Amino acid sequence: MKFITLEGVDGAGKSSHIEFIADAVRTKAPHVIVTREPGGTDLAERLRQVILAEPLTPILETLLIFAARSDHVTRVIRPALESGQWVICDRFIDATIAYQVAGKGVPRDLIARLAQAAHPGLAPDRTLVFDCPYDIAAARLAKAGRKLDRFEREDRAFYERVRSAYLELARAEPPRMRIIDASRSAGEVREQITAALASL
Question: Which domains can be identified in the chain, with CATH numbers?
Protein backbone atom coordinates (compact mmCIF):
# COMPACT_ATOMS: atom_id res chain seq x y z
CA MET A 1 0.00 0.00 0.00
CA LYS A 2 1.01 3.61 -0.60
CA PHE A 3 -0.30 6.94 0.65
CA ILE A 4 -0.18 9.63 -2.06
CA THR A 5 -1.16 13.23 -1.43
CA LEU A 6 -1.83 16.10 -3.80
CA GLU A 7 -0.95 19.62 -2.73
CA GLY A 8 -0.79 23.10 -4.18
CA VAL A 9 -2.30 26.55 -4.17
CA ASP A 10 -5.94 27.09 -5.07
CA GLY A 11 -6.28 27.35 -8.83
CA ALA A 12 -3.20 25.25 -9.63
CA GLY A 13 -5.46 22.62 -11.17
CA LYS A 14 -4.70 19.52 -9.13
CA SER A 15 -8.37 18.54 -8.93
CA SER A 16 -8.63 18.38 -12.71
CA HIS A 17 -5.93 15.70 -12.80
CA ILE A 18 -7.07 13.56 -9.88
CA GLU A 19 -8.83 10.95 -12.01
CA PHE A 20 -5.78 10.68 -14.27
CA ILE A 21 -3.66 10.11 -11.16
CA ALA A 22 -6.06 7.47 -9.87
CA ASP A 23 -5.99 5.66 -13.22
CA ALA A 24 -2.18 5.79 -13.24
CA VAL A 25 -2.04 4.32 -9.74
CA ARG A 26 -4.45 1.55 -10.72
CA THR A 27 -1.81 0.26 -13.13
CA LYS A 28 0.28 -0.47 -10.03
CA ALA A 29 -2.42 -1.48 -7.57
CA PRO A 30 -6.03 -2.48 -8.30
CA HIS A 31 -7.47 -1.22 -5.02
CA VAL A 32 -7.32 2.57 -4.83
CA ILE A 33 -9.28 5.02 -2.69
CA VAL A 34 -9.56 8.68 -3.70
CA THR A 35 -10.47 11.08 -0.92
CA ARG A 36 -9.97 14.70 0.15
CA GLU A 37 -9.33 17.07 3.02
CA PRO A 38 -11.02 18.60 4.77
CA GLY A 39 -13.55 15.85 4.19
CA GLY A 40 -13.65 12.16 3.44
CA THR A 41 -16.23 11.22 6.09
CA ASP A 42 -19.73 12.50 6.84
CA LEU A 43 -18.50 14.42 9.88
CA ALA A 44 -15.41 15.78 8.13
CA GLU A 45 -17.49 16.94 5.15
CA ARG A 46 -19.77 18.88 7.51
CA LEU A 47 -16.72 20.45 9.12
CA ARG A 48 -15.42 21.26 5.63
CA GLN A 49 -18.48 23.39 4.96
CA VAL A 50 -17.83 25.38 8.13
CA ILE A 51 -14.10 25.76 7.40
CA LEU A 52 -14.63 26.98 3.84
CA ALA A 53 -17.57 29.30 4.50
CA GLU A 54 -17.47 30.70 8.04
CA PRO A 55 -15.21 33.53 9.27
CA LEU A 56 -12.85 31.79 11.71
CA THR A 57 -9.79 32.78 13.68
CA PRO A 58 -6.64 31.00 12.45
CA ILE A 59 -6.46 28.86 15.60
CA LEU A 60 -10.10 27.79 15.43
CA GLU A 61 -9.69 27.06 11.71
CA THR A 62 -6.67 24.88 12.48
CA LEU A 63 -8.44 22.98 15.26
CA LEU A 64 -11.40 22.24 13.00
CA ILE A 65 -9.08 21.03 10.25
CA PHE A 66 -7.42 18.62 12.64
CA ALA A 67 -10.76 17.46 14.02
CA ALA A 68 -11.82 16.62 10.46
CA ARG A 69 -8.43 14.99 9.76
CA SER A 70 -8.56 12.84 12.88
CA ASP A 71 -11.94 11.41 11.88
CA HIS A 72 -10.80 10.96 8.28
CA VAL A 73 -7.61 9.13 9.26
CA THR A 74 -9.40 6.93 11.80
CA ARG A 75 -12.35 5.97 9.60
CA VAL A 76 -10.90 5.98 6.08
CA ILE A 77 -7.17 6.39 5.56
CA ARG A 78 -5.66 4.03 8.14
CA PRO A 79 -8.18 1.22 7.56
CA ALA A 80 -7.60 1.42 3.80
CA LEU A 81 -3.81 1.34 4.14
CA GLU A 82 -3.95 -1.47 6.69
CA SER A 83 -6.06 -3.55 4.28
CA GLY A 84 -3.45 -3.11 1.54
CA GLN A 85 -5.20 -0.41 -0.48
CA TRP A 86 -3.51 2.65 -1.95
CA VAL A 87 -4.90 6.01 -0.87
CA ILE A 88 -4.85 9.22 -2.93
CA CYS A 89 -5.77 12.24 -0.84
CA ASP A 90 -6.38 15.76 -2.11
CA ARG A 91 -4.47 17.73 0.59
CA PHE A 92 -3.06 16.55 3.92
CA ILE A 93 -0.57 17.85 6.52
CA ASP A 94 1.50 19.90 4.06
CA ALA A 95 -1.58 22.01 3.28
CA THR A 96 -1.90 22.87 6.96
CA ILE A 97 1.71 24.01 7.11
CA ALA A 98 1.37 26.06 3.92
CA TYR A 99 -2.05 27.61 4.59
CA GLN A 100 -2.33 27.88 8.35
CA VAL A 101 1.33 28.37 9.32
CA ALA A 102 2.71 30.35 6.36
CA GLY A 103 -0.60 31.85 5.27
CA LYS A 104 -2.22 32.63 8.62
CA GLY A 105 0.65 32.70 11.13
CA VAL A 106 -0.31 29.70 13.27
CA PRO A 107 2.74 28.46 15.26
CA ARG A 108 4.51 25.54 13.57
CA ASP A 109 4.99 23.74 16.89
CA LEU A 110 1.23 23.69 17.44
CA ILE A 111 0.77 21.96 14.08
CA ALA A 112 3.39 19.38 15.05
CA ARG A 113 1.62 18.62 18.33
CA LEU A 114 -1.79 18.35 16.69
CA ALA A 115 -0.40 16.12 13.95
CA GLN A 116 1.09 13.80 16.55
CA ALA A 117 -2.30 13.56 18.25
CA ALA A 118 -4.42 13.22 15.10
CA HIS A 119 -2.30 10.91 12.95
CA PRO A 120 0.79 9.64 14.81
CA GLY A 121 3.28 7.97 12.52
CA LEU A 122 1.27 8.60 9.37
CA ALA A 123 2.99 10.48 6.55
CA PRO A 124 2.57 10.37 2.76
CA ASP A 125 4.83 8.14 0.66
CA ARG A 126 4.69 10.57 -2.26
CA THR A 127 3.35 14.11 -2.51
CA LEU A 128 2.74 15.93 -5.78
CA VAL A 129 2.90 19.71 -5.37
CA PHE A 130 1.05 21.52 -8.16
CA ASP A 131 2.73 24.88 -8.59
CA CYS A 132 1.92 27.88 -10.76
CA PRO A 133 2.13 31.71 -10.59
CA TYR A 134 -0.63 33.74 -8.97
CA ASP A 135 -1.94 35.26 -12.21
CA ILE A 136 -2.50 31.85 -13.79
CA ALA A 137 -4.21 30.47 -10.70
CA ALA A 138 -6.43 33.55 -10.32
CA ALA A 139 -7.45 33.39 -13.99
CA ARG A 140 -8.38 29.72 -13.64
CA LEU A 141 -10.49 30.40 -10.57
CA ALA A 142 -12.25 33.28 -12.34
CA LYS A 143 -12.91 31.08 -15.35
CA ALA A 144 -14.45 28.37 -13.16
CA GLY A 145 -17.66 30.40 -13.02
CA ARG A 146 -18.65 29.39 -9.49
CA LYS A 147 -18.76 31.04 -6.09
CA LEU A 148 -15.29 30.97 -4.56
CA ASP A 149 -14.70 29.80 -1.00
CA ARG A 150 -12.91 32.05 1.47
CA PHE A 151 -9.48 30.54 0.75
CA GLU A 152 -9.90 31.01 -2.98
CA ARG A 153 -10.80 34.67 -2.35
CA GLU A 154 -7.54 35.42 -0.52
CA ASP A 155 -5.24 38.08 -1.99
CA ARG A 156 -1.95 37.82 -3.86
CA ALA A 157 0.16 38.25 -0.71
CA PHE A 158 -1.54 35.29 0.97
CA TYR A 159 -1.15 33.21 -2.20
CA GLU A 160 2.56 34.01 -2.40
CA ARG A 161 3.13 33.01 1.24
CA VAL A 162 1.38 29.70 0.66
CA ARG A 163 3.18 29.05 -2.61
CA SER A 164 6.57 29.84 -1.08
CA ALA A 165 5.86 27.49 1.83
CA TYR A 166 5.02 24.63 -0.53
CA LEU A 167 8.23 25.17 -2.51
CA GLU A 168 10.27 25.31 0.69
CA LEU A 169 8.69 22.07 1.93
CA ALA A 170 9.43 20.40 -1.40
CA ARG A 171 13.06 21.52 -1.33
CA ALA A 172 13.40 20.09 2.19
CA GLU A 173 11.97 16.67 1.27
CA PRO A 174 12.91 15.88 -2.33
CA PRO A 175 12.50 12.09 -2.02
CA ARG A 176 8.85 12.48 -0.99
CA MET A 177 7.67 15.74 -2.56
CA ARG A 178 7.74 16.31 -6.32
CA ILE A 179 6.95 19.70 -7.83
CA ILE A 180 4.60 19.65 -10.81
CA ASP A 181 4.77 22.72 -13.06
CA ALA A 182 1.02 23.25 -13.30
CA SER A 183 1.37 26.25 -15.59
CA ARG A 184 2.07 23.92 -18.51
CA SER A 185 -0.49 22.29 -20.82
CA ALA A 186 -2.61 19.42 -19.51
CA GLY A 187 -0.57 16.93 -21.50
CA GLU A 188 2.71 18.23 -20.15
CA VAL A 189 1.36 18.22 -16.60
CA ARG A 190 0.33 14.59 -16.99
CA GLU A 191 3.78 13.67 -18.27
CA GLN A 192 5.24 15.16 -15.09
CA ILE A 193 2.71 13.28 -12.96
CA THR A 194 3.59 9.97 -14.64
CA ALA A 195 7.30 10.59 -14.01
CA ALA A 196 6.67 11.55 -10.37
CA LEU A 197 4.76 8.33 -9.71
CA ALA A 198 7.10 6.02 -11.62
CA SER A 199 9.32 5.08 -8.71
CA LEU A 200 6.51 4.05 -6.35
Answer: 3-197 (3.40.50.300)
